[in-house]
Design goal:
mainly alpha
Amino acid sequence: MNLGGAQRGTAVLPLHYGRAPPWLVERMIKLSKEIVAIIVDEYGSGAFLQRISDPYWFQALGCVLGYDWHSSGVTTVLTGVLKKCINTRRA
């Protein structure tokens, strides 16, 4: 089926409880600082926002940063990591 270039589908992400290990979160913050800096410097903050608003790209970024759980936890963990990354970058 041709959807005019738009990607459509579903992703089943089971809900898992618990916490990401602190050592992993710290590594994710360090790596995300560099990735965010490159994207913003090369393409601008608007392009970064456009990328993270794509759920597939967002999920992939979480995996690239080392959070390979295939669950809804990636949203919470990655959002917290990006918040720390961006706030640290501003300072």
